[in-house]
Amino acid sequence: MSDEKPQEIMFAQACNMAMARAMADDDKVILLGEDIADKEGGGVFKVTAGLSEKYGTDRVRSTPISEQAIVGAAVGSALVGYRPVAEIMLMNFITVAMDQLVNHAAKLRFMSGGQTSVPLTIRTTTGAGTGLGGQHSDMLEAWLAHVPGLKVVAASNPADAYGLLYSSIMDDNPVVFIENTPTYFTKGPAPAPDHVVPLGKASVPREGTDISLITYGRGVGASHAVAEKLAGEGISCEIIDLRTIAPFDEETVLKSVAKTRAAVVVHEAVKNFGTGAEISSRIHEELFSDLKAPVGRVGSGYAPVPFSPTIEKAWMFSEDDIEREVRKILG
Amino acid sequence: MSDEKPQEIMFAQACNMAMARAMADDDKVILLGEDIADKEGGGVFKVTAGLSEKYGTDRVRSTPISEQAIVGAAVGSALVGYRPVAEIMLMNFITVAMDQLVNHAAKLRFMSGGQTSVPLTIRTTTGAGTGLGGQHSDMLEAWLAHVPGLKVVAASNPADAYGLLYSSIMDDNPVVFIENTPTYFTKGPAPAPDHVVPLGKASVPREGTDISLITYGRGVGASHAVAEKLAGEGISCEIIDLRTIAPFDEETVLKSVAKTRAAVVVHEAVKNFGTGAEISSRIHEELFSDLKAPVGRVGSGYAPVPFSPTIEKAWMFSEDDIEREVRKILG
Amino acid sequence: MSNTQMADKDVLLDIFTRADLIMQSDRRFRKMIGAGQLQIVYYPVRGQEVVSAAMMAAINQDDYLVTIYRGLHDQLAKGIPSKDLWAEFAGKVTGTCKGKGGPMHITHPETGVMVTTGIVGSGIPIANGLGLASQLEKDNKVTVCCFGDGASNIGAFHEGLNMAQIWKLPVIFLCQNNHYGEHTHMRDTTGSKTIAQRGEGLGMRSVRVNGNDASEMYAAAKEAVDHARAGNGPTLIEAMTFRFHGHLLGDTSHYIPKEEMEQAREDDPMPILRQQLLDLQVSEADIAAIEAKNTATIDEAAQFALDSDYPPGDEYRIDVLDVEIAA
Amino acid sequence: MSNTQMADKDVLLDIFTRADLIMQSDRRFRKMIGAGQLQIVYYPVRGQEVVSAAMMAAINQDDYLVTIYRGLHDQLAKGIPSKDLWAEFAGKVTGTCKGKGGPMHITHPETGVMVTTGIVGSGIPIANGLGLASQLEKDNKVTVCCFGDGASNIGAFHEGLNMAQIWKLPVIFLCQNNHYGEHTHMRDTTGSKTIAQRGEGLGMRSVRVNGNDASEMYAAAKEAVDHARAGNGPTLIEAMTFRFHGHLLGDTSHYIPKEEMEQAREDDPMPILRQQLLDLQVSEADIAAIEAKNTATIDEAAQFALDSDYPPGDEYRIDVLDVEIAA
Ligand SMILES: Cc1ncc(C[n+]2csc(CCOP(=O)(O)OP(=O)(O)O)c2C)c(N)n1
Ligand SMILES: Cc1ncc(C[n+]2csc(CCOP(=O)(O)OP(=O)(O)O)c2C)c(N)n1
Ligand SMILES: [Mg+2]
Ligand SMILES: [Mg+2]
Fold it and tell me: Which residues of D15-51 are buried (b: 16+ CB within 10 A; e: fewer)?
């Protein structure tokens, strides 16, 4: 079996392969980011390892610590036909580059009356639970989802990461692709080399009849664990993996909830004013009279991400929280 | 009647008076911002006019165009007992200073285990409808509301502005106080000099029985107009002016909706993933079985703020939108 | 400031033709806004004509430009047809951006105008991206990035200049130093004596010139362009100039001392340039012909803007993403 | 670099005492993490001890410090009691911040440590705020703001230094130049030859010193402090140094050429400083006593950290706002 392709790959590897594929397919794909070239180790999490060796440091550029300049260079090159993929090392660092992303990347197509477009991808990673503390773990996707003109994407497994990141790079709109640091090195089934996951389409990785768990990113794994447990009690959970957070696939979500008549939205981000609120609202707006109970929400607590493991755990969204919410909804 | 106090004041004036009062009451109150001192005209909208003349340019400082430095100086001085009020001229410019606000102002109390606090106020103004285009009109309060540790405040009339801005400055937490450019020069009843509006408390400027319109800022005036019109048809609207957007006054909101059994949330910001989603979700979560219909939402369209008046108008939330939503909800 | 040789007559004529179009356009905008024919926020450019005209005379139509809200002079000098530009300023569907962008957000790729931004300093990092594309593409284009003295206090300036320098990007950073950022004088906001000094601190080739002198400005522009096209990287040009009508229309310039304003009026680049042409034996009639042609252009453009329709309201659902947003 | 005179013996002893505590603490952290006794992300400070020790020896306990994730040396040199600091690094409720901040977010107002940030460059604008408070308060305090070479590429550096300069704030910007930002060498990220040059570009008093030389570093620190206390404003000190154990623990420094590492080892400030003390007739026994005392301090602190409890989980509802958040 030695020349068979690997059956399983890691999440980080999937992202790497997606970029390699995009670079091979289109020489307008370039990468920018701190430490991303191989001389500097191929990225702090090695997600870009090998790419500068293969495609050269003209196309794979380690940058200064200058996030505004990084995103700006991506915006500018995207305006004239490049497909830059800019790495913002950790999602919290996007706070220094929001202007470029929000006032420029997201708006230039519109403000130019469609004369220009900004087909860039921002890759960034984040996630709590590993003791990185208040400034290295935030999930800020709700901000980005609120910005017209930006697409926001998060994968829950390596195969999807491969297919979604490739689609993000090839998409003609600015996309923020959110990776999850704590699960970078977890494995999943390897995708076929030509695997593509379209943006804007949710998946239904588990079908069920009693309740819909609508989630994305790391929430998917946690939801699976809870669904598995509850199945033993005869509670049948359907899982919707949004994959694209904004604009999200309302059709798949509403179809599922129309069937199950109950839903819980699950995410790692702080619950208050999080993306779950929009999804919950949309479901209520469309399916109010069909629902057995109000849509539940699970997210992390109203606090900065705490450092100490005990507090971090108590603060963070968890399988227990999901289970409790499902039971509450199903009464 | 010549020495009676004016019966009406403008919104901008109310903010000016609140700052003057805070500066008189507490010499730790200092102001920072571009062009805010009198030599530079007392602010581009004259909201700080006269203050540097009265309190000196040590305490009222015109700054370089350096929003990170402005907010940072506010954070640092707040850490050691000052009550800085930093002006970010227009809300879109906060995108270059999100790091200071989100990673530092909002988190330092928590990350220091309560050893320090950051009693700063960010004043900023925004609002569409006057042809300033895509980069000068955004309502970004949903981002800020999603950040644990930040309070977000918006006033709908001069008296509230006076009482809320004073409370914001005196509050021991970081507060973002959002003003509305297009209504800066509208008048309202003058507050008493000692008027205070506590943070975290909504008001009920109009009582009603059929539906609750939950709103803030410019949405309040629009809601009043619609309520007035519908009253003629025997539809009785209650209006809740949140005043503090985050954390918002759930008690008042839920009490109102428990009574009216119907609600529409109204704001100027883009509807998708806006603050209305959180408020709507909370109402559904708490009052699902009492509701006559799902909670409605009104906000602006999914697009950057357009320049041309025709498109800007079509894009923007409006009285018509509110009326239509109320009628839809009440069936 | 250097003692550059006078530029060639045809170069000066070219610069004058652009600068006069700018001066007349600015005047007309102020007039029409004053008369209530246009309701827009307008950032006057009177006084800065020559900086722009000389810079754009030194580059080609397909070179890139990134500019700011105060950008009319740059946009006209770069060659955007007046009709398209006026219509956009007026918010009409016939404008460069279908009325969606407005004066602060002019884009016109046909003439290389890629971005106009209303966020101070933000064009700088974007200009690098255009320069990076040219460097990778080996298309020999340069990017000119305009901004003000006040913009040099913001972080993006620092990050952008540094990145351009280490990557030797073909970008010309044109700081149009009119001494004021809104109502605040540079001396109250800027720790360094000059902006050029900041460029030097970043290791960049940096020059400070009298931007109001067409020959000096043109020479500096040309040198920077040649330097960039030769692959030697960016230049920061600090072009000293002045704006006569305040930050935005309606600003009374109350914060500008009388003597300073008087001095600036004496240094007004337009009469100086006109006199230089006369001194070079260009006839009054030839100059008047240029001026008349510009007037005609503006007459036509202004009328076109007034006559054109506003875009339909639901245009807001188009160009947000690459697909139309559902109503 | 200047040829400063050797500092007084008691100053050098003071610096050595602080530096040795840092060196031993760093070693112990690396050992305990390696042994699995602590599970934390750790940014080693071995090699940068003297920069910090000499800087903090030149200021008072009530002067302010703003530092970064790589901050152990600064925090110890500034005087945070080892027990409190170790407990915070370990996430224990007895730590400076009750375990909520962790190593990247140390605050300890009693010793003037006001902020430790994990966001590169962000401490700079905040340091200005502390300096502004001191200026208004006329309390004669200075603020020391530490950051790395890589941080000088970010916008906040530029904005912060400029504001400090125009307002003459009593802030000392201490750039600890260890040549690398994560795995990238300064030469690949920095258009200027030195960081000090950037300070000069901003009009700021700027010096570049051998931070590994206790006397030179101390003299520069002292001068900057005197300058600030006299109301003359900020100084940028670029202190040349090196970090021996990579960006964070586990980093193999594969990106550092062998010769560069060897040279750095030869310049290791700790043996040099120790030898200087011996040369000044400090006895081996006296030095050993200092070292032993430091060891005992660390023994006690490490044990205290291990023995202390983690905070209760629902502590996350406290200190978010000034009131407790409902469960
Ligand atoms: C980030 C940001 N902060 C503040 C503003 C508000 N503002 C618009 S123009 C301006 C002054 C800019 O001055 P300068 O760079 O000198 O250019 P000039 O207007 O003189 O041409 C300011 C402060 C802005 N647009 N963006
Ligand atoms: C805004 C921001 N971008 C990126 C990072 C990731 N990061 C952490 S430390 C570091 C290197 C900083 O280098 P330097 O300033 O030289 O300090 P040193 O670590 O060498 O002490 C980087 C890029 C960050 N923390 N913040
Ligand atoms: Mg200016
Ligand atoms: Mg370094």
Answer: bbbbbbbbbbbbebbbebbeeeebebbbbbbbbbbbb
- The answer on pLDDT for C241 being more than 70 is yes
**Beta-carbon contacts below 8 Å between A and B:** 152
A65 lines ligand 2 (CB under 6 A): yes
Are the beta carbons of A311 and D313 separated by less than 8 Å? yes
The helix (run of H) or strand (run of E) holding residue C19 is helix C9-34
pLDDT at res. B2: 46
Chain B nearest-CA distance from D2, in A, is 32
What SS3 state is found at B176?
strand
Q: Which domains does chain A have, with CATH numbers?
A: 8-189 (3.40.50.970), 203-330 (3.40.50.920)
* D185 CA from centroid of ligand 2 (Å): 12
Give the C-alpha separation, C181 to C68, whole Å: 13
Q: Does domain C9-307 have CATH number 1.10.287.180?
A: no
Q: Does this complex have an ipTM over 0.90?
A: yes
Residue B39 C-alpha, separation from nearest chain D C-alpha, in angstroms:
17
- How far apart are alpha carbons B163 and D300 in whole angstroms? 53
Tell whether the model's pLDDT for residue B3 goes beyond 90: no
Which tokens belong to D106? 């140390």
Asked if A294 and B288 count as a contact pair (C-beta separation under 8 A), the reply is yes
Q: Please indicate whether residue C179, judged by its CB atom, sits closer than 6 Å to ligand 1.
A: no
Ligand 2, residue D120: give the atom nearest the CA: 26
Mind listing the pLDDT tens digit for each residue in A236-260? 999 999 999 999 999 999 999 999 9
Using alpha carbons, list the distances in angstroms from residue C262 to C244, C258, D72.
Answer: 10, 6, 58
Which alpha helices (DSSP H) does chain D contain, by range? Answer: 9-34, 49-57, 72-78, 82-89, 123-137, 155-166, 196-201, 214-229, 258-266, 269-279, 284-307
Q: What is the pLDDT of residues D270-299, one digit of tens each?
A: 999 999 999 999 999 999 999 999 999 999
A59 in contact with C, Cβ within 8 Å = yes
Neighbors of chain D with 3 or more C-beta pairs under 8 Å: A, B, C
pLDDT bracket for residue B12 (50, 70, 90):
very high
Can you say how many angstroms the Cα of residue D7 is from the centroid of all Cα atoms in its chain? 21
List subunits contacting chain A, requiring 3 or more Cβ pairs under 8 Å: B, C, D
Dump pLDDT digits (tens) for B265-311: 999 999 999 999 999 999 999 999 999 999 999 999 999 999 999 99
Give every CB contact of residue A219 below 8 A, 6+ residues apart in sequence.
A156, A266, A267, A268, A298, A317
Burial of D5 (0-12, 13-18, 19+ CB in 10 A): exposed
**Closest CA of chain A from B170, distance in Å:** 22
Residues contacting residue C17 through CB under 8 Å, at least 6 positions apart:
C290, C294
Kindly state the tokens that stand for C45.
Answer: 């450019």
Quick one: which atom of ligand 2 is closest to the CA of D48? 21
Report the distance separating Cα D293 and Cα D316, nearest Å: 37
